[in-house]
Amino acid sequence: MMKNDASSSSSGGAAGGESVVADVGRRRSTCGYCKSGRRSSTTHGLWANSLTVYDYQDLLDRGWRRSGSFLYKPEMETTCCPAYTIRLKADNFSPSKEQLRVSRRMQRYLDGIWDGKKQELADKSGDSQVLPHGDELSDSSRMESLGKNEQNAKEEELLDFLSKQIDVAIQSFAKSKDLPCDVQYPKGIVKKVSLSKKRRLVEGSEDLLYTSNISFQLVALLRRAKSDDNDVRLSGTKKNSLVIKGSSYDLSPKHISEELANSLRHLIDVPDLSIKACNGHLNFYCTVKEVHTVKDSHVAVPRESSVQESKGHDIIPKKPQRKKRKLEIILNRSSFDPEEFALYRKYQTKVHDDEPGDITQQSYRRFLVDTPLIYVPPTGDDTVPSCGFGSFHQQYRIDGRLIAVGVIDILPKSLSSKYLFWDPDFAFLSLGKYSVLQEISCVKENQRHCPCLQYYYLGYYIHSCSKMRYKAAYRPSELLCPLRYEWVHFDVAKPLLDRARYAVLSDYANMRNGDLLSTQEPGKLLDQQHDDLGDEDLNDAYVGGDENMSDSDSSEDELLPETNHLASAPTENGDVGCLLLDLRGSRLRYKELQRVISPAKQVQLENQLLSYMKVVGPHLSERMVYSLG
């Protein structure tokens, strides 16, 4: 849904729709990702007085992003955490099981099947599914009265809980064994064992409910890992051993599953559920006397309850009356909204622990409302979508209540995600992940009317920051080469980034030589990791990936003198004499200004213009207006 009554906060721009920017130069500040405490983050900055959506699209494709009206680009070779622009083609998007689960969870909540409240561990264990039975539970209609959807929802909550506990056990296991710390470990996935599969297993497996093959994934990952830590390295003398501080550790699914099972027994206190390691698998068994199934769903039934049923006591819970909810997604032009600001304050204080006094309307406007983008209204043809091009706030409302706001830019080729803030009371809906799916759908929907709009930009991807790696779960994605500005498939780029934080991604041809992984192996490894993230993970707070630039004119930033830091960049032909300058409202080419300024001023200004042309590119620099103040 699109509302057109709200006006843009700062989309006026210069007459005729031109881009006017002022070069800030190189900046050095503290890093919000590695949190080193040093001014180790280096970027190049521009202030945009006005910016056409076409110029901003081209800036995105050269590694730039915006925070309000401030444009910034990481200096990839020198910054502590190189940030690669990441995008995916919406039509090619293939959702993972976890992403589909997020959509199903939202739908169950809207249908009134699930109320979203956290269940006690006893409920997760299946106690709420325990039914009294008389004659061997012959009255199947009573069981079905619980409702298949409610039963599946509770079982899914239990699977989520067990998967998260496996993740905790993996971290504890890795720490205790001093395993590589710079490796992205696979997420634990617990699956239900189907009735047909149990029939093929050995006798006595009828009590087996769930299983996980995480141990096999860990072994595959660790055998490929090439750690820089001298204390943790792969041994070349024994194929299935990992040398840890001088001692040999058996690197096999059997031993790892036993380690994880021992750890899980201390983490999980779920009634009627036991954990065992079997041939490398982690198995979860029901400990009650009998397990009956209804349409291949497990329902634990203790014999003691048969006495109550035989006496005629109806203790089967009644099916609750469902109350459906209405979700609205409303697209507004970027403007200040008091309701949105109140939600932003709540989000920042409860999710990011910001001090309430630090969250002002001015800082909020500067970060998420102000925009230099010049709005392009719909033209009625297939060149502009029905909402137009520009900066927008996408509101998510359930029964009229504002629960989330996505800040996005809709551009000629893409939808660029900037930031998302949401109501902490609705954290159980994984709104960060859900909004990404909706924004991808928005691209697909608009593409029908505007074929050139094909891509979804997720902001920056930082391979060295674990909180940012979730973006690669939206597949198939591409990363922008920081040197040649070519798009490289993530599965090809990943082995390069595993070896070094900064890499010229377009040099992927070198992967066929030396000891790098083949271009096929990364995809296989990612498939094993299931692209899964825990719902409680802070990654939902990092959608768009730009929050660390929220205070772009911070006093902690330090301007640096220009150096030949781009000497390794490929030569791009351009003539600084052709650059259009804005001098106190007057427009003239630099070659015209040269005639009236001193030689010393010429040298100083020409160095600035050359630096500007290198980071922006010759075509864009000649198209935009360079403001001299």
Automatic annotation (TrEMBL):
E.C. code: 2.3.2.8
Keyword S-adenosyl-L-methionine carried by entry: no
Single annotated GO MF: arginyl-tRNA--protein transferase activity
Stretches with biased composition (Acidic residues): 548-560
Domain N-end rule aminoacyl transferase C-terminal: 339-481
SUPFAM superfamilies: Acyl-CoA N-acyltransferases (Nat)
KW Acyltransferase (keyword) present: yes
Domain of life per record: Eukaryota
Positions with biased composition (Basic and acidic residues): 133-149
Any one GO biological process: proteasomal protein catabolic process
Region Disordered, annotated ranges: 1-20, 123-149, 536-560
Name under which the protein is recorded: Arginyl-tRNA--protein transferase
Underlying gene: LOC110802162
